[in-house]
Amino acid sequence: MVLTVLPSAAETDLIRSQLSEAFDAVVITSTLTLSGAVDRVAAGGIDIVLLGLDLPDSSGLSTFQRMFDCAPDLPIVVMVDREGEDLALRAISQGCQGFLTRFEIGPKQLRRSIVASVERQRALRTIRRDAERYSLAINGTSDGLWDWDLESDAVFYSARWNGLMGLPERDVVAGPYHWFDRVHPDDLSGLKDMLIEHLSGNARHFEHEYRVRGTGGDYLWVLSRGLVVRNLGGETRRIAGSMTDITERKLAEKLLAFGALHDELTGLANRTLFKDRLAVALKTMKRQSGPPFGVLFLDLDRFKRVNDTFGHSVGDRLLVEISRRLETFLRPGDTLARLGGDEFGILVADAPSVSDALHVAERVQERLRLPFAVDDRTLEVSASIGIALSATGYDEPEEILHDADVAMYRAKAAGRGQTQVFDPLMHRSAVALMRLEGELRHAVDHDEFVMYYQPVVSFDRGRVVGFEALVRWNHPERGLLQPGQFFAIAEESGLANAIGWWAMEDACRQLVEWHRRFPENPTLWVSVNISDRLFMQADMVSRARAILADTGLDPATLRLEFREEVVVRHAEQAIAKLEELRRLGIRLAVDDFGSGLSHLSFLQSFRYDTLKIDPSYINALGGDAPTMIETILSMADGFGIGVIAEGVETADQADRLRRLRCPEGQGFWFARPVMPTDAEHLIVNTPEWWAMGGQAH
Length: 697
Ligand code: C2E
Ligand code: MG
Ligand code: MG
Known about the structure:
By secondary structure, the protein is of the alpha/beta class.
């Protein structure tokens, strides 16, 4: 049934008669108004709508839009005046199926247009249904899917694919690096080889098992399958496929193999076998009153340095050399195991007293101090050793190993090359705290910190202008920890500065790399938080200078964030320091501005480059805050200081700030702090924040 919606009875009659001429049997229904048409469509049975745009109750493009909203699946042909053709083309771009010029139509043309529109709409429906089916299939499978367009090098990764990697579960289009960056370094070339084999036609299928980094930095085993799509000329256009988590299967396979009990590199017992031996020793001691034994937990000091400086293969050979030397201490019944990267365990079979175990530890320390020769290099090594004694009374191997481990952390805390015996009288909470502190120390030694980056966006341009670097601790067991979870202990144990310096250096290196990779963005800056304690460190300025020299970063693109308190409290000394930093060319920002009391006069003491308005003001934007923020903005403007609104969480806040002409903003509404690879994405494809905001209103 054809529905005509034309502004006058005369025009309606004309079209009705032409329709009757054009089709043998046609049912026509007519209305003169949009509201009439909406009712008519809702009643059902309509196959196509001939719609005039200027009706008594609606005019222009919105007539089409409203009709289309009511009946997105119906073909709509709009009727326009000759001058209205531009309008008709816009309607077509929004889903209209065709247009006719009023009073210039004959029955034949009417017939052609109607038949074509109905067919087009039917084809569109089929495509849409296929797309829905495809998306159901994607969402229904537990496999991740990927689809790589080889011409543009853009890869579609399904939500599940990202979920497997521990990323937010949503579809993503990104470069191949999004995938390859997560592949275990040892498996990457194998994976690429297999892809090339298939792409070049040597292998009929692409199918490969390898490891990828998932949540919290752990690796999982995956199986990827794929097939290339060629065009008629046989050229490869796309390759698409799946990714399945096979970690459990791999684990089972591994446990079955004998190798599961030995360390591949050194051939020593591994942790599983070591615990097994501990269990046997505990049982023998209890049942047959066998001799008490000792457990030495040994962790090499700063072993990561060796890997970083000389490469992994030198590190590996050094581990083998160390294993060989440690083996010379073994007596029958002792077990030496490699427990992890640079950790070893020694079960000393016969150690009735502390001094027996200490004696072994001392000999180990002595012998480790003698230099090692790897290739033509001479390497120095020391280890921290923790001791636990079975005489203390343990039931499970894990318990004694754990205490030896805790003692080792204590030894680490005392400096390099130390030995510590676990003291059963230690209070439990002290152990926990010490453990965290020990772990933190270990983390500093082993580079367990990672930098996350949160973009700062210019309200004016809607673009990322810089990033705040925010440190995270990638804890081996507890996953990613926020500064709030460890900074207090870091401060207490004197480790905060080491972390702070690491943060500055890492952020500078990252920015140098970004400047190199995105040369079109030379003014992209990064801002680093400086704790009060770090700021007051005597050699603060010279170390900052050294980092700039080492990394080669343009100082003008580095910002340091201080809290106003530190400046207020140490007035003259602090100002002098700020001036020195300024002379290095570094930009200076006041963090959490407005959270203190003294901020107004404070601004006259030194010319900062940027104020970061405390999130509490942004939070209160509905109430009195606008006046406060306006005051800060106009003051800052007067002083020639930039302003960043921190903690922007909603579209409404963003919009208000924009209207207050706040220059820059940062907050969850734009983006949470993200990993560098994701930050790169934001640099390359700044999202349409304002378009998103528009929708939210
Ligand atoms: P900050 O300098 O004020 O950093 C901003 C904090 O606010 C970050 O928390 C960030 O994740 C969070 N944030 C950003 N946007 C929003 C939002 O819209 N809503 C809410 N609720 N929060 C938002 P994070 O990463 O946990 O850091 C906390 C604090 O730890 C930082 O506060 C900073 O003072 C300190 N910190 C972080 N990294 C470092 C570092 O490398 N060195 C030093 N010294 N301190 C650091
Ligand atoms: Mg900050
Ligand atoms: Mg802040």
